[in-house]
Amino acid sequence: MRTRHLLARSALAVAIATGFASASFSGPQAFAAGPPAATAPLKLKSLVITGNKQVSTDDILAALPFHQGDTVTRNQIDAGAQDVMGVYQKKNVGLKFGQKLKFAGSAVYIEWAIEEQAPEVVQTALVVDKIVFEGNKKLSAADLTNATKLRTGSTIDQAAMAADQEAVQKAYQARGVSAAINVVPSQPAGDNHVVLTYKISEQ
């Protein structure tokens, strides 16, 4: 009996000294020492997405070719991350994307941390939809149109509008007629189409 007791104590001492004492692990705390191969099949145990506010989690998950419980590879996970970035690009929302993968045997736990940025403001070019002359009696609309450069369908900015206003003024001066010219842009459709109205007061 004493011999068996001594042997048991000796075996326990060897186990502690060599690190062979057994322990059980469960969940994401038990991770492999290194990542598996890029094409190795892995069981997706969980996918956690944080930080998304402007884009819903449902929209993000709908863009992915895999979901919790599926078998995936590291390559497929990386491709899924690119799909998420594509969703944000379509919605015109910038983001910083962080990915953390945890491996436990043949299982993988994915954490995606998203830091959203303000939507980019895209400036749409203004386009001339119509040009109207009001108050012109001594010069015809055709005369004034010939003096200007902007036409229906032309893109317009402040400089182009000012240049045409000056051109109309010079057309009147060339005829020896005094006139006050005021250009009023409007967007009746509420979009990028502009109606230019020249309000002319001849003297």
The CATH C-level class name of the largest domain:
Alpha Beta
Structural class: alpha/beta
The N- and C-terminal alpha carbons lie at a distance of 129 Å
Number of helical segments? Answer: 5
Provide the helix percentage: 25-40%
The count of DSSP E runs of length 2 or more, i.e. the number of strands, is 8
Percent of residues in β-strands: 25-35%
**How many domains?**
2
* CATH topology term of the largest domain: Ubiquitin-like (UB roll)
CATH architecture of the largest domain: Roll
Low-confidence stretches: 1-32
Q: Please, what is the CATH homologous superfamily of the largest domain?
A: membrane protein fhac
Order of strands across the widest beta sheet? 2-1-4-3
Radius of gyration, CA atoms, in whole angstroms: 36 Å
The best one-word shape is rod-shaped
Order of helices and strands: HEHEHEEEHEHEE
Largest sheet: 4 strands, mixed
Task: Please describe what this structure looks like.
It is a single chain. It is built from 5 helices and 8 strands. It is of the alpha/beta class and 203 residues long. The protein has 2 domains: 31-116, Ubiquitin-like (UB roll); 126-202, membrane protein fhac (Ubiquitin-like (UB roll)), CATH 3.10.20.310. A 4-stranded mixed β-sheet has the order 2-1-4-3, with helices on one face. 13% of the residues are buried. The model is unreliable at 1-32 (pLDDT under 50).
